[in-house]
Amino acid sequence: MSFDEEWAGLKTEALARRSTGMQLNQLGGVFK
């Protein structure tokens, strides 16, 4: 696997994790 492919995978993973975190934060705001 090339560095570029690995980096692209890491970025995709980070974006997915961040969007999931934002969704959880929005849900948390609803329940407060």
Question: Could you describe the 3D structure shown?
Answer:
With 32 residues, this protein is mostly helical. The chain has one helix spanning 3-31. It has 1 helix and no strands. It is rod-shaped. The relative contact order is 0.11.
Separation of termini? Answer: 45 Å
Helical coverage, percent range: over 70%
The amount of beta strand, in percent, is under 5%
Average pLDDT, all residues: 90
Oligomer classification = single chain
What can be said about this structure in brief?
With 32 residues, the chain is mainly alpha-helical. It has one helix at residues 3-31.
Please give the structural blueprint.
Blueprint: H1 3-31
Key words describing this protein structure:
single chain, 32 residues, 1 helix
